[in-house]
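ok so i was messing around last nite and threw this chain in just to see what happens. nothing serious, just curious
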Amino acid sequence: MLARGGSIVIDGPLDDPAAKALASAALRAPDPSLTVLRLDRRRWPNGLPRDDLPRADEPIAMLCQGQTCSLPVTTSEALLALMNTRRAGSPS
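result:
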């Protein structure tokens, strides 16, 4: 399970309704090897540890494994589809 583990990164204010919806969808992940990470850029007043993270005008979610992340999605439905696609492609 650890070999195929990954993270779902939710980038958006913790109190934003769209970010909350993405986080709620992420927590319903059909794969227990995924962790959910929340990123609220307002909590880093001196800048993020990495400046190369993508920025968006609205909350986004990315599915990451190793050093690779998916393209960002902005809806719960798209995130659930991404997680289901990952699960279908994983060896049992």
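not much to say yet. The first strand starts at residue 6 and ends at 11.
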